[in-house]
Design brief:
single chain, 77% helix, disordered N terminus
Length: 471
């Protein structure tokens, strides 16, 4: 064993220099450049994925696959989006485990390149099956989400983890705001700027421009990553950086490398499974609400909805995205410091019950008042405020999953397990929630509110799982 290194160098990485009380007051500074690049990579994904939302229904209608039945458009659009999550669920764990062996950056290169190619193919698609294939390819090659969370865990420690993981919902909110704006503005450019886009190409592929712009964002992100992002997997860092800066000996490096090949079954311990189960249930309930909200807002008032027009729905969703992003940026880390991650998680998930209760309240208000007045608007505003509190659960559950890893070399596999579970939940959630909504209204089960009762019961399961988390 090499004993020539000054002992204080290793101690600085493995033992506290100050008492626990002092550590609470002195946070480790975040590596701003590395996290900034990571968030740029993250931002490109929600922009690209949400940019198709404004025009996907019109694109499917123009392909003629519904036979003129406008009611079937949503069915085909749902298939396209669900298949992405199904494909992602099949491969995200393999990509995450591969990142534990070959490094994080190579897997990100593959994922970003695949996303870039798939969005270009989407813009050039002229049949339903070409749309399906492009989205499936994107899901199959995309292990980025799990790997990025792994890298964030490796770039932070217990003193600054909350501040760093708060950036994920902020970036998704920002991407969810920019993406639809990009897709809606640039779709069918020959109609908006006929002189500039007079070439027949734009008539044949009227939705290629927003896809091309999204692909350019991926290319820019890929360039930034290759030039400036450092590898975070300890066994794949440069030897000088690994041994000197992080205090990792050659023996420790070999041990960590062998841990990367740990059988998956050995990771299925309660300390790891419970946070992942919380994440899966959280993702299911969240995506179910996000599928129900626009459906409820657009449903006719005689069926218990608000009958808002698309522009009003878009304005409410954009308002929620901005409000959510600002709140998470300003207050999430401070609230975690004040209450602790476990208590904050339990508070956040408890908000789901009143969120669901507000749906029938709004239906009752509209039926008694005969219009969407200030009382209905205020109730909807309160519901979205509670959703902001609910969203803080994601930042805390990412912290639980990261903290459950026995070593960083299996952190990719653990995040892969979590992302696989979440992808399955997100593939099932929208179809199940919207189907329950339709059945509840058609058969008048529990006065049309059966879907909310079912989701409230599942929220009770999540609250129980939250108590079981170690944190």
């Amino acid at each position: 064993m090499d004993t020539s290194d000054p002992p204080r160098l290793i101690a600085s990485e493995t033992t506290p220099l100050f008492p626990t009380e002092a550590l609470k007051k002195h946070k480790t500074p975040l590596p701003k450049l590395q996290i900034g690049i990571l968030m740029t990579l993250q931002l490109a994904e929600p922009i690209a994925s949400s940019s198709i939302f404004p025009y996907i229904n019109q694109l499917i209608s123009e392909l003629g696959i519904t036979g003129g039945d406008d009611a079937a458009i949503g069915y085909y659009a749902g298939i396209i989006e669900s298949l992405f999550f199904v494909a992602q669920a099949l491969t995200v764990l393999r990509w995450s485990r591969l990142s534990d062996r070959i490094g994080r950056k190579p897997v990100l290169v593959i994922g970003i390149s695949g996303a870039c190619i798939s969005i270009l193919c989407f813009g050039l698609s002229t049949t339903f099956w070409s749309l399906v294939i492009s989205r499936c390819v994107c899901g199959l090659l995309n292990g980025n989400v799990g790997v990025m969370k792994t890298m964030m865990g490796e770039l932070t420690d217990s003193t600054n983890m909350a501040q760093a993981f708060a950036l994920f919902p902020i970036i998704w909110s920002l991407g969810g705001f920019i993406g639809p704006l990009l897709g809606g503005t640039l779709a069918r450019p020959q109609d908006h700027w006929p002189t500039l886009f007079a070439d027949p190409f734009w008539g044949k592929y009227p939705y290629f421009l927003p896809c091309a712009v999204a692909a350019c964002l991926f290319v820019l992100a890929l360039f930034m990553m290759l030039m400036f992002l450092e590898e975070t997997l300890s066994t794949k860092r440069r030897p000088k950086l690994t041994s000197a800066t992080f205090g990792v000996s050659s023996g420790e490096s070999l041990h960590q490398q062998s841990m990367a090949y740990t059988p998956l079954r050995s990771l299925l311990t309660p300390a790891i499974v419970v946070p992942i189960a919380n994440y899966a249930m959280l993702a299911f309930l969240d995506v179910s609400f996000r599928a129900l909200l626009p459906l409820f807002l657009s449903t006719p008032t005689y069926l218990g909805g608000l009958k808002l027009d698309p522009s009003s729905i878009g304005s409410w969703l954009a308002f929620f995205g901005i409000m959510d992003g600002i709140f998470q940026a300003l207050f999430f880390a401070k609230i975690v410091d004040r209450f602790g991650p476990k208590r904050l998680f339990c508070i956040s998930v408890s908000c789901f019950v009143p969120i669901m209760v507000m749906f029938p309240i709004m239906s009752w208000l509209v039926s008694t008042r005969g219009e969407v007045d200030y009382a209905v608007t205020f109730t909807l505003f309160c519901q979205l405020v509670l959703m902001v509190v609910w969203d803080m659960a994601f930042g805390t559950v990412f912290m639980f999953i990261t903290a459950s890893a026995p070593t960083n070399t299996v952190l990719g596999a653990i995040n892969g397990l979590g992302q696989t579970s979440a992808s399955v939940a997100r593939a099932v959630g929208p179809a199940l929630a919207t189907s329950l909504f339709a059945v509840s209204k058609e058969r008048n089960i529990l006065a049309g509110n059966a879907v909310y009762v079912v989701l409230i019961m599942l929220a009770g399961v999540l609250r129980w799982l939250g108590v079981a988390v170690t944190g």
